[in-house]
């Protein structure tokens, strides 16, 4: 949209102001001139189209969009890396703790291995899965909300209020 949008806006501006460049004829009826006098002055002085300003504005939006796409990708990659680390840690605990202790014929070593495996697995499940869920929720609430709905245009925040709605109805 970097290239076609400024040209489309220029075309739309020219089309909108195409018929507004004509002035009243010299010998026009005075009643018509009196009726349209103020409107005619306003319509003759329309705003000029600044192509460079529109292009720079569109360039800024394009850069923000690309940075947002890279940020979203990096955010999802962090979540994926955390999930991959969880999977690898579970595999390491299974291979190096549980299977290693099953190779011994001693019941005491087997009991210690099972307890260590259970503690490590529960620790990984509780800590890493909770962290993963927290990061995913944070990502959805903060990053997605900011990209999709929030625009810092300088408008004062007006929270939702049932009292304001009832005042407007009365």
Automatic annotation (TrEMBL):
<dbReference type="GO" id="GO:0046961">
    <property type="term" value="F:proton-transporting ATPase activity, rotational mechanism"/>
</dbReference>
<dbReference type="Pfam" id="PF01496">
    <property type="entry name" value="V_ATPase_I"/>
</dbReference>
<dbReference type="GO" id="GO:0016471">
    <property type="term" value="C:vacuolar proton-transporting V-type ATPase complex"/>
</dbReference>
<keyword id="KW-1133">Transmembrane helix</keyword>
<comment type="similarity">
    <text>Belongs to the V-ATPase 116 kDa subunit family.</text>
</comment>
<dbReference type="InterPro" id="IPR002490">
    <property type="entry name" value="V-ATPase_116kDa_su"/>
</dbReference>
<keyword id="KW-0472">Membrane</keyword>
<dbReference type="GO" id="GO:0007035">
    <property type="term" value="P:vacuolar acidification"/>
</dbReference>
<dbReference type="GO" id="GO:0051117">
    <property type="term" value="F:ATPase binding"/>
</dbReference>
<keyword id="KW-0812">Transmembrane</keyword>
<protein>
    <recommendedName>
        <fullName>V-type proton ATPase subunit a</fullName>
    </recommendedName>
</protein>
<keyword id="KW-0375">Hydrogen ion transport</keyword>
<dbReference type="GO" id="GO:0033179">
    <property type="term" value="C:proton-transporting V-type ATPase, V0 domain"/>
</dbReference>
<keyword id="KW-0813">Transport</keyword>
<keyword id="KW-0406">Ion transport</keyword>
<feature type="transmembrane region" description="Helical">
    <location>
        <begin position="107"/>
        <end position="128"/>
    </location>
</feature>
<comment type="function">
    <text>Essential component of the vacuolar proton pump (V-ATPase), a multimeric enzyme that catalyzes the translocation of protons across the membranes. Required for assembly and activity of the V-ATPase.</text>
</comment>
């Amino acid at each position: 949209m970097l290239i076609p949008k400024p040209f489309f806006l220029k075309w739309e501006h020219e089309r909108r102001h195409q018929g507004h460049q004509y002035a009243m004829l010299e010998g026009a009826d005075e009643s018509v001139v009196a009726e349209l006098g103020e409107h005619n002055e306003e319509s003759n002085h329309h705003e000029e189209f600044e192509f460079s300003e529109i292009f720079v504005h569109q360039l800024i939006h394009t850069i923000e969009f690309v940075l947002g796409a890279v940020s979203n990708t990096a955010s999802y990659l962090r979540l994926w890396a955390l999930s991959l680390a969880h999977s690898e840690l579970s595999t390491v605990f299974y291979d190096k703790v549980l299977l290693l202790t099953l190779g011994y014929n001693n019941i005491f070593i087997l009991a210690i291995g099972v307890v260590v495996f259970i503690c490590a697995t529960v620790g990984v499940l509780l800590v890493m899965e909770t962290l993963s869920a927290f990061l995913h929720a944070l990502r959805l609430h903060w990053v997605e909300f900011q990209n999709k709905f929030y625009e810092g245009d300088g408008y004062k925040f007006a929270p939702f209020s049932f009292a304001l709605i009832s005042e407007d109805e009365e």
